[in-house]
Design the sequence.
């Protein structure tokens, strides 16, 4: 058996592998057919051998030839043989060949049944996987019938890897052997809910395909698919499901909805993307989008809302909001309603109420919104009310009137206050009524309303505002009542306060208690004064005098920084510099002040980053193989919120919660329309007048076209507080002047990278070498294709133990193309062999473990085994590589020679003179001598040269005579006696290996003949 | 469901073929020849789809290689393009900036990757990571058995 294996691997040595075949075909472009026919003959020989590795290799080559269009059906039986190998490596090749070459009429398929069954039940999942993959390509009705049960079992395999393959292949089985569908279907259906998404999508795929053939049987699965559609984030699966529904809809029209929905959703999503860049084009679809608000699907409604936010203009705001308000009424008791509410407020308030032309309308909208029960956004409405009332002066009277009614009807709002966030609105109402009480028509009534006992049930912070503002109102009421002759009214008002306030003094809320007791004492004091007929209103009002002004958000920035305050100074010691800075050579920073290093460093970094980014972009742009990621297409579904599939029932509320006396916002819409019509009419009149005056047709443009934004005159103006603070004196900016110094400092440039080894390879590598090693150097420069690819080889042989030589090769890519898949190969001689990893053939090249972008160099080491070192050697080799350009790639090779000289086997070894003498005396050494003529250099130079180039060491030197010694890696002693007289140098040498000595002397001679 | 997938070069050389329906070699050859000619005759600006016989052809050129899929009438062209692209991405990840020669010299690997991604024409695994993991592990297995064999 062992002999067989050895024999097999010897045979393999002479085989072509697939790479050789491909390369051969490429090299025989002219006589391809002839070449291939010889190859096929070889393959036939290989197939006759017993060695399975040889067979697999042959089958692999056949698979390639099959693709080129050659008939390989004669090898079908051999393919089955390779398939049956117990080794995965060969099995894989066998199945691949089978899947490429077999078809239904291939008769050997019958023989495979048992083998496939065996592989399907293999404990190794990859064996099973490979068998399933292969089977999917050549399954026949017979195979399907025989293996259906095995595959069905695999559908419940523990590994998802097998499950998904088994599920997918079931489809093929169903096609070939339809009887298997019925028993397998329940299990297939189960797989729709498999925990593994891969298996799930496989099941979806199969059922979709089945359903396309016979939709009616799969209608019952629709709910399951619907669930999948709403929960899956895998868009591959979603597409399949939509297609499945497409197949089912003719039978079940209700399904159209779900399909349409997904499409609709995507459309809206796309629109919102377009809106950011081309708002005009989307705005024209306003009606369509408004229609989407009626959709039953909440996700779609929410998307539509998002869109609306971006589409409003002065012109359509009222209309859009009106529509939204209708929806608010319909969407009772859902979270969607809350969403609507915030959207309405967002839409209206965006960019400082830019689109609101009539604030009375907006206030009424807000008041209408307060009728919403159970909303969480009371505070939002409240803050809007406050904001508008404070900033829009003209609206205050109206707002106050509205708020007073709200307060009066507070019982409606607070009816079931516990779960009602809307009572927050009362906070705003109370504050507005108090602060702007001069606008109140009937302050007394409002005061009365604010002091009702029921108020005590409100949350603490609202009560506090109530109490405080009751005091403000009180002041106003006093003022109006003191003018009257009858002072009892004023006293009654005080009495009302004194009667009602104790309720608040008892409050559990500190704030309420504090304010109430304070105000109570104040009122008591006032009452005392009133009883003495003192005019008090003036003084009481002074308590609340002065107008509150809004502050711009940027106001703080305009406050000048006080003198002596340096905001940029460190309060504590700055943290230690980052590691990378520590690593920098100190000299660079020594001359400069350390405190500047930080900002400058980041600057360098940024520049560097930008540079790298640019370089990378460049590289990517130049690289046609770079595949840009397309995240957008994959992420579309990811943020899909769950589709609300409970249909929204339209509840007809006959009695809406209307607060009596409140205006409906609708009327403003009407008013606005009327106003616009009027304006338009007036304008037309003017135009006509103008036209009459000018008698020119130029005015026509304005006539028929739609109103432009500018035509709409707002009814009220918002105080947009941004630039109201006085401009800061420019001198204040001087605080920042010290910073300017650092700007002047030179920017440290990026550190230079060390020179590439190829440029000064000698020194670089000398440093890397261990002292023991010796090296032979060869420098070669090759030019290929003129100046496209230039490479420098700097080959160094390093010696280690008795029979091993390490050769370091520096590859430098001097061209502009990208080099990859480099393979280094040497034609071995009997004596010297390239060491290849286990398992590779004797002619296989070694992969260079890196790729070379243009201008980059890198070093790789290769180990050679040498048997005899007494003769110099030259090894021929090739380097094959792929050159990648903009749009093409070529396979190229470069031939080179490696020269192993005898001196490269010598190791510099020191030797003492007595040991040296003993060596010479022993008489084991054979002598030889050489004479060098015309050597024109000082003796010590000569010695140095021999030491350096030939790895000798000087033992002893007397005048113009020196003894030298060296040792080979295999332990040969080499002794030299060098004498010089005039220009003649004579070297007497002794060594235990005369051939080696002769070669070393030849090499020494050559060294000196070159100089 | 794709009927077959072909990879061919600008010169019309077939680099990879995968048939998901059993056809005789003669038919395969005929289809391949016709299709390669048709696709190569199209200008770069033309769209990636064409109707051919009763099938739809979806193709896309990546550098010097054309990736070409034949699908049924009811199938979606865009998802097929996506499948092609995903396959290219997989090749790219596996070979490290893939080029035509990678596929020529390692054509069996290209098949293995395709087989992990599509099975019987259906996408069996949509996660790139999982596909590559499966390939890597199978490769590892192959190396182990190879070494064992050589011992």
Sequence:
């Amino acid at each position: 058996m062992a002999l067989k294996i050895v024999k097999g691997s010897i045979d393999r040595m002479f085989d072509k592998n697939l790479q050789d075949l491909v390369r051969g075909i490429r090299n025989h472009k002219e006589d391809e057919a002839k070449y291939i026919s010889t190859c096929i003959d070889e393959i036939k020989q290989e197939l006759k051998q017993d060695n399975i590795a040889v067979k697999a290799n042959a089958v692999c080559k056949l698979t390639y030839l099959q693709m080129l269009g050659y008939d390989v059906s004669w090898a079908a039986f051999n393919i089955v043989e390779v398939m049956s190998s117990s080794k995965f490596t060969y099995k894989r090749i066998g199945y691949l060949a089978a899947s490429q070459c077999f078809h239904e009429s291939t008769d050997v398929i019958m023989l495979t049944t048992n083998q496939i069954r065996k592989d399907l039940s293999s404990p190794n999942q990859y064996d099973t996987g490979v068998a399933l993959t292969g089977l999917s390509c050549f399954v026949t009705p017979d195979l399907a019938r025989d293996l259906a049960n095995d595959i069905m079992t695999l559908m419940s395999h523990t590994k998802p890897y097998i499950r998904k393959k088994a599920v997918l292949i079931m489809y093929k089985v169903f096609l070939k052997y339809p009887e298997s569908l019925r028993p397998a279907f329940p299990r297939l259906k189960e797989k729709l809910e498999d925990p593994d998404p891969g298996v799930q999508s496989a099941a979806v795929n199969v059922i979709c395909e089945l359903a396309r053939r016979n939709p009616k049987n799969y209608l019952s699965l629709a709910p399951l698919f619907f669930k999948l559609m709403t929960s899956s984030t895998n868009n591959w699966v979603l597409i399949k499901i939509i297609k499945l529904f497409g197949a089912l809809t003719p039978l079940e029209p209700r399904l159209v909805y779900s399909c349409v929905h997904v499409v609709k959703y995507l459309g809206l999503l796309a629109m919102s993307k377009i809106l950011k860049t081309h708002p005009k084009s989307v705005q024209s679809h306003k009606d369509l989008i408004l229609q989407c608000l009626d959709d039953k699907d909440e996700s779609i409604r929410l998307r539509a809302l998002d869109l609306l936010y971006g589409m409003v203009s002065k012109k359509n705001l009222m209309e859009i909001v009106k529509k939204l308000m209708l929806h608010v009424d319909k969407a009772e008791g859902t979270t969607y309603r809350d969403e609507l509410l915030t959207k309405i407020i967002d839409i209206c308030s965006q960019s400082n109420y830019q689109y609101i032309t009539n604030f009375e309308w907006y206030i009424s909208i807000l008041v209408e919104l307060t009728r919403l029960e159970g909303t969480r956004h009371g505070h939002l409405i409240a803050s809007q009310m406050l904001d508008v009332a404070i900033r829009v002066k003209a609206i205050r009277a109206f707002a106050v009137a509205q708020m007073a009614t709200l307060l009066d009807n507070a019982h409606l709002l607070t009816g079931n206050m516990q779960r009602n966030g809307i009572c927050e609105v009362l906070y705003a109402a109370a504050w507005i009524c108090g602060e702007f009480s001069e606008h109140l028509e009937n302050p007394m009534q409002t005061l009365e309303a604010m002091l009702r006992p029921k108020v005590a049930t409100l949350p603490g912070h609202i009560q506090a505002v109530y109490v405080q503002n009751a005091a403000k109102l009180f002041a106003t009421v006093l003022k109006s009542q003191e003018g009257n002759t009858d002072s009892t009214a004023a006293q009654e008002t005080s009495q009302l306060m004194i009667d009602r306030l104790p309720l608040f003094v008892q409050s559990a809320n500190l704030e309420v208690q504090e304010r109430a007791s304070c105000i109570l004492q104040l009122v008591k004091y006032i009452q005392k004064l009133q009883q003495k007929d003192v005019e008090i209103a003036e003084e009481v009002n002074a308590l609340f005098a002065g107008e509150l002004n809004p502050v711009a958000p940027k106001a703080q920035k305009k406050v000048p920084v006080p003198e002596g305050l340096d905001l940029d100074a460190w309060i504590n010691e700055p943290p230690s510099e980052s590691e990378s800075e520590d690593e920098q050579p100190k000299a660079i920073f020594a001359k400069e002040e350390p405190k500047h290093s930080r900002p400058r460093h980041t600057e360098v970094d940024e520049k560097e980053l930008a540079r790298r980014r640019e370089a990378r972009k460049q590289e990517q742009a130049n690289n046609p193989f770079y595949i840009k990621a397309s995240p957008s297409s994959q992420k579309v579904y990811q943020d899909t919120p769950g589709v609300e599939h409970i249909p929204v029932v339209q509840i007809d509320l006959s009695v809406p919660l209307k607060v009596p006396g409140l205006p409906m916002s609708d009327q403003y819409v009407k008013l606005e329309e009327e106003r616009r019509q009027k304006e338009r009419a007036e304008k037309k009149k003017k135009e006509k007048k103008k036209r009459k005056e000018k008698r020119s047709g130029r005015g026509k443009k304005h006539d028929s076209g739609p109103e432009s934004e500018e035509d709409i005159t707002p009814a009220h103006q918002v105080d947009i507080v941004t630039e109201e603070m006085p401009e800061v004196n420019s001198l204040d900016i001087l605080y920042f002047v010290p910073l300017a110094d650092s700007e002047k400092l030179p920017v440290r440039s990026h550190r230079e990278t060390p020179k590439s080894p190829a440029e000064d390879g000698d020194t670089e590598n000398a440093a890397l070498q261990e002292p023991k090693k010796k090296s032979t150097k060869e420098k070669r420069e090759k030019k290929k294709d003129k100046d496209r690819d230039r490479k420098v080889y700097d080959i160094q042989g390093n010696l280690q133990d008795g029979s091993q030589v390490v050769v370091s090769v520096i590859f430098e890519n001097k061209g502009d193309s990208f080099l990859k898949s480099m393979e280094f190969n040497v034609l071995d001689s009997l004596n010297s062999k390239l060491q290849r990893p286990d398992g590779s053939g004797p002619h296989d090249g070694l992969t260079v473990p890196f790729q070379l972008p243009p201008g980059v160099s890198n070093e790789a080491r290769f180990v050679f085994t040498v048997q005899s070192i007494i003769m110099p050697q030259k090894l021929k080799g090739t380097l094959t590589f792929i050159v990648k350009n903009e749009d093409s790639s070529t396979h190229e090779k470069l031939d080179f020679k490696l020269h192993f000289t005898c001196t490269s086997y010598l190791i510099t070894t020191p030797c003492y003179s007595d040991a040296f003498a003993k060596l010479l005396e022993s008489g084991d050494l054979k002598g030889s001598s050489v004479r060098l003529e015309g050597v024109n250099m000082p003796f010590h130079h000569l010695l140095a040269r021999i030491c350096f180039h030939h790895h000798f060491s000087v033992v002893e030197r007397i005048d113009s005579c020196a003894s030298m010694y060296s040792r080979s890696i295999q332990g040969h002693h080499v002794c030299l006696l060098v004498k010089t007289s005039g220009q003649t140098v004579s070297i007497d040498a002794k060594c235990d290996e005369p051939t080696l000595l002769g070669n070393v002397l030849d090499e020494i001679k050559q060294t000196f003949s070159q100089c | 469901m794709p009927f077959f997938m072909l990879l061919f070069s600008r010169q019309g050389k077939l680099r990879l073929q995968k048939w998901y329906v059993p056809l005789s070699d003669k038919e395969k050859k005929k289809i391949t020849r016709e299709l390669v000619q048709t696709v190569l005759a199209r200008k770069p600006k033309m769209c990636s789809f064409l109707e051919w016989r009763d099938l739809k052809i979806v193709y896309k050129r990546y550098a010097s290689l054309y990736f070409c899929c034949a699908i049924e009438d009811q199938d979606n062209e865009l998802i097929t393009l996506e499948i092609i692209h995903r396959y290219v991405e997989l090749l790219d990840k596996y070979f490290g900036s893939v080029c035509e020669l990678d596929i020529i010299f390692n054509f069996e690997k290209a098949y293995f990757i395709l087989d992990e991604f599509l099975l019987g024409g259906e996408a069996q695994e949509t996660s790139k990571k999982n596909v590559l993991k499966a390939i890597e592990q199978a490769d590892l297995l192959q190396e182990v058995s190879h070494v064992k064999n050589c011992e």
In short: The mean pLDDT of chain B is 87. DSSP finds five helices and seven strands in chain B. The longest strand of chain B covers residues 55-62.
